[in-house]
Amino acid sequence: MKICVIPIDNRPVCYNLLKDIAQIDKSIELYLPPREHLGDLTKSANLPALFNWLENCPKCDAIILSLDTIAYGGLIPSRRSTETFDEIKTRIEKLKTILVKKEAKIYAFSSIMRISNNNYNEEEKEYWKDFGKKIFEYSYSEGKKNLNIPESILNDYLSTRKRNFEINKLYLDWQKEGLFETLIFSKDDCAEFGFNVEEAKTLELLGGKTKTGADEIPLTLFAKAIKKEIKVYIEYIEPDCKNLISNYEDISIEKSILGQLELADIKTTSSKDKADVILIINNFREKQGELVMNWDTGASENYILSLDTYNKPYCVADVRYTNGADNFFIEKFLPQINLEKFYGYAGWNTSANTLGSLLACLKVRFKASSYDEHAFKKLQLIRFLDDWAYQANIRALIDKPCEIANLMKPFEEKLSIFLPSTNKTSLEKTFEKRSYSFPWNRKFEVEITL
């Protein structure tokens, strides 16, 4: 199967992760634009180069497309761009001309502009450092509170929202014309109320489909494009708490899981015996933990993890904490892994991010036409080194991006299950060319190269 993908930007989880997952099945041919064509934290994508690349991309079965990348230059530029509606409309109409010539199923997604509840302007316009929380509160009250936001700033914010919303309605018109096999509007960093929530409701009333999340959507669509029938049984570590809402999301963890499964075209069953795979959800009590903010949700000490009793493949969505793994769970889980039955682990960033990437791995790994065990082990090493070693442990020990190889060594040794053998020489050989870097020059994401 040949799949073309235009990612959101050049972050490891948006670019490298796609490649690592696709390589699990050697029968999948993945086409990605050169990484330098994509945007990052400070620059937009090279749109002329991307248009040229897409136009000349070989014939594929499916195209997975970040519309924000083409329209604005990326997800972050979609919030910062000062271009007018007409300028962006002209650009995306050129995209449409290219797409109608492609004999491929097109799976597209566009974001509903987020509203961050903070005064950090790293990914927003400059004024967010002074008025971000006030704009969030203004939105949360649906414009009913006068919060002393300067009129010029409020007008700029509202006009940017309106521009993006009108562009999304254009995509909805294209969907009704039959251009897209699937079109998703993603809700990034949602609260219970706000302009973004109202926009989502309006798009749904107009026939659009929305999903909570953002960065994982191309991965979930990647899973959807791969046509396999899978039934999963969902096993919650905290079954009485599946109705709780995750951080940065507006729906319960159960609804988030079911929504991602539906989008990935993976069925569920209430019978463990009838399932192909068991989806273990390490969910939270009371409130989802947040490692960066030092919010603790407590360990699930009453849960007995006995993987040797599982007679089916299993995979794990570790969502007890935002932005990293649950250390207590990993300590119990790692020694019990059976690589014949283990189909994947994820625990990065939000619950939706974790689920989307896990389901993409599951879909490729399950009955792969040409399974590459080495590629699967490499992917799992990277996920545990990132989600567990770095995000849940090392990140708190450093003040800024720096050399972390020595700090990572104790965790590397504990992951010997994924190596050809467990002797010290093998460990050193596997990791002698590994590197840890910070592509956006911030602690939030690390790039792991093996």
How would you describe this structure to a colleague?
This protein has 450 residues and is of the alpha/beta class. It has two domains: 2-223, no CATH class; 228-398, Rossmann fold. 38% of the residues lie in helices and 14% in strands. It is built from 15 helices and 15 strands. The strands form four sheets. It has a six-stranded parallel sheet, with helices on both faces. A five-stranded parallel sheet has the order 8-7-9-11-13. Helix 9 packs parallel to helix 12 and helix 10 runs parallel beside helix 12. It is globular and about 60 Å long. The two termini are 26 Å apart. The model has no long low-confidence stretch (mean pLDDT 92).
For the structure shown, list the relevant keywords.
450 residues; alpha/beta; Rossmann fold; six-stranded parallel sheet
Describe the structure concisely.
With 450 residues, the chain is of the alpha/beta class. Helices cover 38% and strands 14% of the residues. The mean pLDDT is 92.
Q: How is the topology of this model organized?
A:
Elements: E1 2-6, H1 16-22, E2 29-31, H2 47-55, E3 62-66, H3 67-72, H4 77-80, H5 85-101, E4 105-112, H6 128-140, H7 151-177, E5 182-187, H8 195-205, E6 210-212, H9 217-225, E7 231-236, H10 253-263, E8 267-268, E9 277-282, E10 289-290, E11 314-318, E12 321-322, H11 327-333, E13 342-346, H12 351-365, H13 373-390, H14 405-414, H15 424-431, E14 435-437, E15 447-449
Parallel strand pairs: 1-2, 1-3, 3-4, 4-5, 5-6, 7-8, 7-9, 9-11, 10-12, 11-13
Antiparallel strand pairs: 14-15
Helix pairs in contact: 9-12, 10-12
